[in-house]
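Subject: Sanity check before I submit

Could someone independently write out the structure tokens for this chain? I want to compare against mine line by line before I put it in a report. The sequence has 202 residues.
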Amino acid sequence: MSADVQLEDISVRFGDFVAVRDASVTVKGGEFFSFLGPSGCGKTTLLRTISGFQTPSTGRVLIDGRDMAGTGPNQRPTALIFQNLALFPLMTVWENISFALEVKGIGKRERRRRADELLGLVALPGEAEKMVDELSGGQKQRVAVARALCAEPEVLLLDEPLSALDLKLRQRMRTELRAIQQRAGDHFLSISRMTRGGFDHV
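---
Independent answer below. Compare away.
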């Protein structure tokens, strides 16, 4: 189930440098919301603040009405997909997807069942046994999304997820991400330098 995300007067400073100044926004559950802007304008800093990897200098982050102050990344109902995807090259596709469950001590049969379920969700059935380096750029992106969804986050955060893809593939993947988001029922917050895409709000 997706949750509302509220940023209230968020500012983030690094010494004298202000990365984010007085940002306030509300994202409703189930929305695909994108922060657009050039490099260095604070987009990644906002996602890191929502996910708990960065502490705001001032302001509050609320998820489903809960103040996230003092709540670490591993305790927040969020998952952050970094630009480089960070897939494990020595694991198969299904092992990558189910890694979070392995850390929790979930048995192999249940991990594989969940991985296969998510591969269906991201339209990659039959790819479970492949190694990461056998996949195309778009397929790797979908595996990264499936791995993040395996942890059942309420909010999925995507940091420039399509920047490494060519224009034609970016256009197709924007459509596919929107379809995945609608099927999963979560809401996605994405950041991008691009001005076109299947977003509800920018």
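---
OP: Matches mine. For the report I'm noting this point. The CA atoms of residues 134 and 143 lie 12 Å apart.
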